[in-house]
Every structure is written in C-alpha cells, then in structure tokens.
Amino acid sequence: MGIRFSVLASGSTGNAMVVATEDTKVLVDAGLSAKKVDSLLKEKDISAADLDAILVTHEHADHIKGLGAIARKYDLPVYANEKTWDALDKQIGDIAEDKRCVMQTGEARDFGTLRVESYGISHDAAEPVGYCFYNEDQKLSLATDLGYMSEKVKEQIRDSDVMVLESNHDIEMLRVGRYPWNIKRRILSDLGHLSNEAAGIGLCDVMTSRTKRVYLAHLSRDHNMMDLARLTVNNMVEERLCEDDHRAELMDTYYDRATAWDRLDEE
C-alpha cells in the first residue's frame, strides 16, 4: 500500500495531519481540540488509540492545542526535540515520562515501515522542524511555518512524490489587512510565514519529474484565498519553467475539514 495521508486541518486556527502505511499510523501535530482531532481521525476510519506516535513540529498553539489531552487519553508517545519539549511543558500538562520521546532535529526514526526524518526550519519558535516520510521508494514532505525556504530546506524536500507546502498569505492582502504592523512584520519576516509568491518560487527549485502533487497549506483566512494561492503559485512556476518542464498538480487544504486520503502510489 505504501504511504497514504490526509491533512486533517491546516491554517492559523489549527493544524493536524495523519500519515499511514500498512502497519503504521502517526499524527503530526494536534492543533485542534482533542475532541475534534478524534472526530477527524474517525472520519478517516482511524481510532486515535491505534496511533503509533504523535510528532510535533513546534509549540505554537495552532499545532499543539489538543496534544496533551489526546496523548493522555490514549496513552500515546509524543516525539519532539528537547527545546520544543522545554517550551511544551508549560502548555500541555503532564505527559508520562515514558511517553515523552526526544527526536532531535535532523534525526531519522523508523515507525514500523514508515521512516520519519525531521529537519530544521526558520520560524519564531524554540526549535521548529518539518518532516519527511519514507516508505521504500516513496517520499512525502511536510514544510509549513517557514519564514523562508532555505537551501537546506530545499535540499531536504527536493524530489518528493508529494509535498505539503506552506502558501500562507498574499503579500498585498497582508499589507493592507487589519493586523497591526508588528504582526504583519512578524509574518513577513524570515521567522514568519511563506507567501504565495515565495512558495511558487521555492517550488521551482524542489519540484522534479517525480513530484505528482503539491498541497498548498496553512493559508491565512484573513490574507489569502484558495483560488488566489493556487493562481499565484502556478504563475510563479510558469514564469520560471520551460514549456517541457514538469508541473505537479496543485491541491487545496482546508481549515475546517480534512482532505481526502492521498496514496503516493497513485498517479
């Protein structure tokens, strides 16, 4: 069967993704209530009790809101690097010592037939990470909450079969939007979020003939729209690729519902 996944929710109000192989199921982040995460997993015919691990990207509330509750309810192991654990301790309540698992940035671990590798990203958190998932010759990459796409990030996610890539905001919508300037400056900084334009430019450097689909993720509800994100990323790609170069299909994610299961072995 290989890798399959669903983005359960994506955006500033909450983020979670489930990744599975034939014998393994992991949850990446739990940025909604435990009840909501439970419900979304059930929609995908998965019981949270059957999860092998919860992987944490960073400690911001939209990624860990339900983490403590769901980990305690189902006695699940939680994986994060040491600095993220230090930041989490004040937010998620008690987690049993044997369920507090340290996975350092850059480390790779096997969960059954699913190999998971973390990598460092630029964001205003303690030590934020993205993840790449491998099964045999399949590769899925998650890259959100990026202030910018560094060369190291590009190297890490390049040549993926499928990517979940941040396309957070339209720069002009953000500039004229209702946020105070200090928040706008933070979002636009190298420790903030990736714009539609930056996502499109970066995608040109990491997309190969192997890349089938790219899910545009973590869209701002105030300063972006799905159609605009898709159009802008597509335009950036078209401007930089020759006519015969490969173009992956751009896919949507949602803040209020899960994406359909995606299997990496499907064209």
From TrEMBL:
<dbReference type="Pfam" id="PF12706">
    <property type="entry name" value="Lactamase_B_2"/>
</dbReference>
<dbReference type="InterPro" id="IPR001279">
    <property type="entry name" value="Metallo-B-lactamas"/>
</dbReference>
<protein>
    <submittedName>
        <fullName>MBL fold metallo-hydrolase</fullName>
    </submittedName>
</protein>
<comment type="function">
    <text>Counteracts the endogenous Pycsar antiviral defense system. Phosphodiesterase that enables metal-dependent hydrolysis of host cyclic nucleotide Pycsar defense signals such as cCMP and cUMP.</text>
</comment>
<dbReference type="InterPro" id="IPR058121">
    <property type="entry name" value="WalJ/YycJ"/>
</dbReference>
<dbReference type="GO" id="GO:0016787">
    <property type="term" value="F:hydrolase activity"/>
</dbReference>
<dbReference type="InterPro" id="IPR036866">
    <property type="entry name" value="RibonucZ/Hydroxyglut_hydro"/>
</dbReference>
<feature type="domain" description="Metallo-beta-lactamase">
    <location>
        <begin position="13"/>
        <end position="191"/>
    </location>
</feature>
<dbReference type="InterPro" id="IPR052533">
    <property type="entry name" value="WalJ/YycJ-like"/>
</dbReference>
